[in-house]
Fold:
Amino acid sequence: MAEIETDTSKLPPNTLVSEIERTRASLAKTIDEIADRVSPSNVARRAGDRARERISQIDPLIGGAAALAVVSVTCYLIWRRLRK
Structure:
C-alpha cells in the first residue's frame, strides 16, 4: 500500500485529531466491506443468486428437453435393474 507522507508537526492538534478520525472511519468502512465479502452466508447467497440467474436464462424448450433426458435415463436404469 502506498504511504502518504504528511508533515504532522505543522498541523494544529484539532486538525490532526479530525484527520485521525476520518482515517479511522475509512478503515472501519473498509473492514466492514471485507467482512461482508467473506461472510460464508453472503458468499452462499451470492452463489445461489448467480445460479438462479443462469437457470432463468435457459430457454424453456432446452430445459424441458434436459429434464426429459434425465427422467428417461433414470427410468431406463430402474427398468434395467428390475429386469435382472
In short: The mean pLDDT is 87.
